[in-house]
Amino acid sequence: MTVPDLGTHYLGFHLAHPVVPSASPITGDIDSLHRLVEAGAPAVVLPSLFEEQVENDALALHHGLEFGAGTFGEATDGYLPDFEDYNTGPDSYLDLAAKAASELGVPVIASLNGASPGGWTRYARRLEDTGVGALELNIYFMATEASETAADVERRCLSLVEDVREAIDVPIAVKIGPYFSSVPAVAQRFAAAGADGLVLFNRFYQPDIDLETMDVVPDLVLSSPHEMRLALQWIAVLYGAVDTSLAATTGIHTGTDVVKMVLAGADVTMMASALLKRGPGALTEAVTGLNDWLAERDYTSVAQAKGSLSRQAAPDPGRYERTNYMQTLVTYSTDWKRRAGGQLR
Ligand SMILES: Cc1cc2nc3c(=O)[nH]c(=O)nc-3n(C[C@H](O)[C@H](O)[C@H](O)COP(=O)(O)O)c2cc1C
What we know:
Layout: E1 8-10, E2 13-15, E3 19-21, H1 30-38, E4 44-50, H2 51-55, H3 90-103, E5 108-113, H4 117-128, E6 134-138, H5 150-167, E7 172-176, H6 183-193, E8 197-200, E9 208-210, E10 215-217, H7 229-238, E11 245-249, H8 255-264, E12 268-271, H9 273-278, H10 281-296, H11 302-305, H12 323-344
Parallel strand pairs: 3-12, 4-5, 5-6, 6-7, 7-8, 8-11, 11-12
Antiparallel strand pairs: 1-2, 9-10
Helix pairs in contact: 4-5, 5-6, 7-8, 8-10
Bound molecules: flavin mononucleotide.
């Protein structure tokens, strides 16, 4: 059987394979980072440093589960989370980044979630100074003001990337959400603004309403594999259409998920929920799954498989477009009627 070359390139780094731990508490301390590297992680993304965390070290949230809370409007009114159990403040974050960069022997990607234009660049420089290999800008922004148009939101996101690009030299990945009117247009503009990679997509956490306390409450539910379809679709569309590395995040739990993302065109896939649920072994299993799938089908490399089912290369590119919409509905209806036939009579 062929032994496939699993190597891939991401943000200019050559990685042994495309399964990378995403930003989450499991990448937030040096011991678990070492365990991830022992399990085969070819690079790691640290949890985000939040600007609010730097500005006010004594703020409070529940176990990092509301990691985007600082970007909600309430933040300005003093509703701010406690980062203590998530990562332990800016100094220890910078220490962690420096330690990881010097000890791990794989590229370390620090992550930044800024709040003010000056904040993004200031902390990007501080993070670069720790010796990390690259920076991921975690743009977790909810447009809640009707006065702010789509163009305003895009301009804001693009100018922060331009500002950070000017301020630092290491490669920059931009982690975005899916809520843009035209993902390909905005992706190209991020590339033009200086992004070396796009991470698709940030998973926005939706709060719940507690009917006992009559309050809005944070409720983080870890992902399940079917959630990967959104990123799968857009990576397939962007492959070959945007001049950046492409990373897939959300719903990557197994080797099968990794294979699908690679076929769509991802340079790397990122895991958080699977690692939080099953530990570093989930990464090793996913790499084995990828290897076995390729070997069984005589692929010589990840590079050979990459993008072969992207929109531009798929035998039926319409599968990624509106032409597939009616067909999906018709197929479902036909199957449903066949299955439900007995009950409907
Ligand atoms: C508890 C938790 C904390 C997270 N913290 C961060 C963070 O600090 N920065 C970030 O960019 N993403 C963060 N994420 C998002 C993950 O990196 C990932 O993009 C998301 O969970 C989807 O991937 P998954 O389906 O593998 O979980 C966090 C996710 C979880 C579950």
